[in-house]
């Protein structure tokens, strides 16, 4: 009788596992041992069929179709096996793929053993996609494991922040005007620094004197960003106060 030894179920750990069998006889003979197998050892997770192929005594033969189905189960895995390398960057109009350090025992390679997906924070599960984010914002990150030696799971809990890039406004201030009963001041844009390439970003300026009379001494300018790419930037200073003067209005006296 061929008796397969236990255990016949293992969990993947990167090591070789296997099964073996012994021969039990009802008659007294010298010990008979199995001398060969097929399918008796493996490393990778999977289902295997082991068969004995011979014994050390030519007077006996193995029973036909006496085999053992045995398995190496996929190993469990969780988020602690992955460490996000960089969770915060500043917008630069480039895509920013997440990169992870993995547990040294895994020997994982991105896109071979796992894939990374992204979605904007607060969006639903249908928003997951594999395109690394570009625009400023906070993004949820998901790792999908598809190495067959591990449980096929989706792992979450990481976030990446792409911060808005700073913009600096240099104004061109007309520091004096003639009294006209308004506080309106004239301020134009001299330069705008910090915009990446030719992105669509401009500045709206609202400027006012501190009073409409000749006692005015300052001009307060308030800046706001406009344009299709403005959501990726912020103003390093959104308010500027500079000197300003309102000159008396010269009257013309017409005599008769």
Please explain how this structure is put together:
The protein has 256 residues and is mostly beta strands. 0% of the residues lie in helices and 46% in strands. The protein has a 4-stranded mixed beta sheet with strand order 2-8-7-5, with no helix packed on it. β18 (202-209) and β19 form a beta hairpin.
| Net shape | rod-shaped
Radius of gyration: 38 Å
Largest β sheet strand count, sense and barrel closure: 4 strands, mixed
User: Which secondary-structure class do the elements indicate?
Assistant: mainly beta
Whole-number mean pLDDT? 92
- Quickly count the helices: 0
Widest sheet, order of strands? 2-8-7-5
CA distance, first residue to last residue: 141 Å
How many beta strands in the DSSP annotation?
22
Name the helix and strand elements from N-terminus to C-terminus, one letter apiece: EEEEEEEEEEEEEEEEEEEEEE
Helical residues, percent: under 10%
State the low-pLDDT regions, or none. none
Secondary-structure blueprint:
Blueprint: E1 2-4, E2 9-11, E3 17-18, E4 21-23, E5 34-38, E6 41-42, E7 46-55, E8 67-73, E9 82-84, E10 88-90, E11 100-102, E12 114-120, E13 137-145, E14 154-163, E15 165-174, E16 176-178, E17 186-193, E18 202-209, E19 218-226, E20 233-235, E21 239-243, E22 245-247
Parallel strand pairs: 2-8, 10-14, 15-20, 16-22
Antiparallel strand pairs: 1-4, 3-6, 5-7, 7-8, 9-11, 12-13, 13-14, 15-17, 18-19, 19-21
